[in-house]
């Protein structure tokens, strides 16, 4: 590229093409104790939250046979559907909060919320109670577990990001 061509390009383009002149960053070891713990923690967070979504059919059958006898399966199905919807709808807000405060507080809130939701479902007798506990509270709490786990994992695994994501996200696969 000639000098006259570079003058016509925006500054951002010329800066991105000149990055090869900068010295490369230190080649740091990517798999450290901390990154391994992040990977294990992200896997556990996914297992505890997404595992419930994958096992929803079992919960639906149990609720229909024991806890919610007078409700139709269609009504009970809304609990699982709304739970996943609540996770996805609250994830952008959790992501913005993650950028401001970091993962620790979000993971604590998500863990306490998910535990609270599971304990409250055991005490529920009415449809609206199960809906509030499992669909709303557990769904939002799952966003507090999944979003920081994904975001933190991508910070610790730059070169092997696909491997790290594959390890934690195999739980999403339905058999």
TrEMBL record:
Q: Which organism is it from?
A: Aureobasidium vineae
Please indicate if the UniProt record lists Hydrolase as a keyword: no
- PANTHER family noted in UniProt: MFS-TYPE TRANSPORTER AFUA_1G00970 (PTHR11360:SF250), MONOCARBOXYLATE TRANSPORTER (PTHR11360)
Instruction: Specify the protein name.
Output: Major facilitator superfamily (MFS) profile domain-containing protein
Task: Report whether Transmembrane helix shows up as a keyword of the record.
Answer: yes
Q: Name one GO molecular function term.
A: transmembrane transporter activity
Pfam families, sorted: MFS_1
Q: Where is there biased composition of kind Polar residues?
A: 14-24
| Alphabetic keyword roster | Membrane, Transmembrane, Transmembrane helix
